[in-house]
Amino acid sequence: MNNYDYEYGQAQEMNDATKHILTGIVVGGLIGATAMLLLAPRSGEEIRAEIKDKAMDLRDRTTESVKETVSQVTSKAGHLKGGLKDRSQDLKHRGQDVLIEQLDRVSEAVEAAKKALQEI
């Protein structure tokens, strides 16, 4: 496995972990809200206002977490893209060097064959 596959795997694992965290936050928020409704000794209006505040807080935290994750993934993808571009340029230059080397060998072989034919 090369370095780019490894980095892609790490980005994928980070993405999967983020999904699990966000799911946990949402499920935990819902369970907490339900428990609050069942156990709260307050009036319905107070409970609804508190649920609304908590839901907005949860929404804001989730939005922040999603934005941060998207930013990290975008940054990592940009890094990988730049690395791939550099790697492709390196491979292109290596290929050109090998081609020139092989052409030189073929040229030398042709010259040797010409000399051998002239001596015959």
Topology at a glance:
Elements: H1 3-39, H2 44-119
Could you explain the architecture of this structure?
With 120 residues, the protein is mainly alpha-helical. The chain has one domain. It has 2 helices and no strands. It has helices at residues 3-39, 44-119. Helix 1 (3-39) runs antiparallel to helix 2 (44-119). The longest helix is centred in the last third of the chain and has 76 residues, at 44-119. The model has no long low-confidence stretch (mean pLDDT 80).
Quick structural summary:
The chain has 120 residues and is mainly α. The chain contains 2 helices and no strands.
Looking at the structure, what is the overall shape? Answer: rod-shaped
Strand content: under 5%
Tally of structural domains: 1
Order of helices and strands: HH
Number of helices: 2
Number of strands: 0
Helix/strand class: mainly alpha
Low-confidence stretches: none
Give the rounded overall mean pLDDT. Answer: 80
Please describe the biggest sheet, giving its number of strands, its sense, and whether it closes into a barrel: none
Radius of gyration using CA atoms only:
32 Å
What's the helical proportion of residues?
A: over 70%
End-to-end gap: 55 Å
